[in-house]
Amino acid sequence: MKYASLEMSYTRVTWLFVSLSLILFASARAQVPAIIVFGDSSVDSGNNNVIPTLLKSNFKPYGRDFYGGHPTGRFCNGRIPPDFISEAFGLKPAIPAYLDPAYTISDFATGVCFASAGTGYDNATSKVLNVIPLWKELEYYKEYQQKLRAYVGKKKANQILSEALYLMSLGTNDFLENYYIFPTRKSQFSVRQYQDFLLGLGENFIRELHGLGVRKLSVTGLPPMGCLPLERVTNILGQNDCVDEYNNVALEFNRKLEGLVAKLNKDLPGMRMVSAPAYDIFYQIIKRPSLFGFEVTGLACCSTGTFEMSYLCSQYNPFTCSDANKYVFWDAFHPTEKTNKIISDHLIPGLLAKFSH
Q1: Residues acting as catalytic residues
Q2: How distant, in Å, are the alpha carbons of 230, 257, 275 from that of 262?
Q3: How many CB atoms lie within 10 A of CB 142?
Q4: Distance CA 222, CA 127 (A)
Q5: Does residue 96 have a cis bond before it (omega within 30 degrees)?
Q6: What integer is the mean pLDDT of 285-308?
Q7: Residues near 219 by Cβ (< 8 Å), separated by ≥ 6?
Q8: Closest to 60 (Cα-Cα) out of 80, 40, 77
């Protein structure tokens, strides 16, 4: 009798937990009707496929662990963070790229990606590999607004646009593909001045978004960019460990970004904005991989795992790993789907708490 009573109590608690989870899930779905994405390759779901750039990933082995094993233009073996975030809010499990001709406004009504691999806050960064600059992503968004209003009507569209959760993730290319490679910006700015220059551009962009009706925004700062395999392989004097200088720049940039977020939350009426804390969890994964089920962190899965990405990441390279789940990084610059999911799972509870009511 005693055990039967305990079992009934346990069953009631379990059902209560399930019920509360379903209520939160339904609430999130009701409050966030779409996920809309701006940024670089960390969140690009395939816009670079249709522009004249060398920075593409719409070929194997990219996408080999995606639905159906198809490459999509995501710089990953599978899904990327916006996909997991969309799914967590009760929306579709993969966000389509705005420029992908396979999709229409009916697909984009619940989520769309304007991001372009290789871009940055700085227009000069987008010119390095001839990709979509941030101002052009904004122009595409304005075009999308018009299409959405024509599709569902002005009132419904404005509701979707104001209740949608917007994601921004960029900045790494500004440093690793621009500032530390080419002399122009370095001759104009110290690294701290360049951080401030980028954040000024970011502030202008966010103010424009707010003027267009955006009210829910999550901005991801820089990752531990000194730990990317591409940077580690060239850090010969540092025994191929992470480049501390780059990581310190990322941490300082992220602190300044948090200050900007706090300022804009005060300045912009109705704006609810967060800085997504991805750096720490990513760094923990890199430094203590076994705790997260990884075996390899210094090299990437694709090809030799040292410098290859985009077209250099080839399905015909005999060194490409067979199991990407053992690796933190997929190519020399981008994490595997497993890493993306762990980082996303770390961020999602905060996003649900902030934006699902």
Answers
A1: 41, 331, 334
A2: 33, 9, 9
A3: 10
A4: 20
A5: no
A6: 92
A7: 168, 169, 202, 206, 257, 261, 273, 274, 275, 276
A8: 77
